[in-house]
Design brief:
The protein is an all-alpha fold. Helices cover about 70% and strands about 0% of the residues. The chain has one domain. It is elongated.
Length: about 140
């Protein structure tokens, strides 16, 4: 390379241009309503994830017993949690964009139920990983 500083400048301009183009394609994020901060978003996401784990573990055990398996592997909670948490974080942000924290505290997770149902039906915030595979199997689609 005859002129490394010129090449580096061109490379930097290219990177900045691509980054700006990707940012322009991303949907604009709405501001959070009163009371929400990153800590509240995470707390809501963990509550959402815990709310999904309890029935999933129960259904896992019931399915094993229905199949006559008395000594089954324990429910894979970590793998399930790792797949549910990103979905719940996405839903948390949607909730924070829709209701104030005080409004959401009155509603509890029930207020977010339509958003959770939408995600579980493959819409916005749909889960990947283990939870996504479970949903696909229930609907008869290949994982």
């Amino acid at each position: 390379m005859a002129n490394p500083p010129k090449f580096m400048t061109l490379a930097l301009v290219a990177v900045l241009t691509c980054t700006a183009a990707m940012a322009a394609d991303a949907p604009a994020r709405k501001p959070w309503k009163d009371g929400w901060d990153r800590k509240q978003i995470k707390a809501f996401a963990y509550a959402c994830t815990d709310g999904l784990i309890q029935p999933a573990a129960r259904d896992y055990k019931a399915a094993a017993l229905a199949d006559g398996v008395t000594l089954h592997k324990p429910f894979p909670e970590k793998e399930f949690r790792d797949s549910a948490l990103p979905m719940c974080l996405c839903i948390s942000e949607r909730v924070a964009e829709t209701w104030t924290l005080a409004e959401m505290e009155k509603q509890g997770l029930q207020g977010a139920k339509p958003m959770i149902d939408e995600a579980l039906d493959g819409g916005r915030c749909k889960p990947d990983g283990m939870l996504g595979d479970i949903i696909k199997k229930r609907k008869g689609a290949p994982p």
